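Weekly puzzle thread! Below is a chain. First person to post its structure in token form gets bragging rights.
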Amino acid sequence: MARQAWRLYRQNIGGLFLTVLPFFVLAAVVFYVVVINVEIEAGNVLLLVLSRDMLHIVVASFAVGAGMVLVADRLAGNPGRAGASVRETLGSGGTILPLAVLGAIPYCLTFFILGPFLRELFVGPPIVITAVVIERRRFGDALARARELLAENWSRTLLYLITFAAGAGLLDFVIQQLALRAVTGASTDVLGYVLAIAVSVIVPSLVMPYVACAWLIAYFDLRARAEDFDAAALPSLRPTTPQ
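Winning reply:
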């Protein structure tokens, strides 16, 4: 499934990057405005990290949702444009926001055990967010749909999601650390902040589209195992009205 996700990512990277970029620009601005204007004491660093990660999970849930809309539309033979995908995803904000918070809370509760490397596992959450943006389902229906799809294949899917999230988390960490060297070597504080914001926007804008493709492939795999779903069903992938 990871190979199929990589193929989708490569085929749609331009549109995906433009789709998720506005979300991470907003997240970076919000986070660094807080960092600049709030006095950070040593004891508050952990709280700051958790706050940053919770903000990431919420924002990334919208970004991943928009990315899946774009790819699904293109697979269904529709134009699949970044602006339309963002608008449609924001239109489902009343459902996506509580789901994103639902993902952020267990992340905080397990942070001291799992650390930050499985953060992407809580984005969405996976499968549920796919039911929202692909099948246009509401909160309760999306949860029920996820349980239905996972009923016979939850262990296989969970192993895939954990493995992929760990890989994406490690990749994000390595890129961030390499970029931090440039930031800490900046000649002025202003330049350092500019570089830090640029890194915090560009890195997730490149990594999270791959996560969107991976979540979408996992959804396709579950549907293929639970239903009569194959490539011939792609043109009718997304219903025209909410369910």
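Puzzle host: Confirmed. Bonus trivia for everyone else. Residues 134 and 238 are 6 Å apart (CA to CA).
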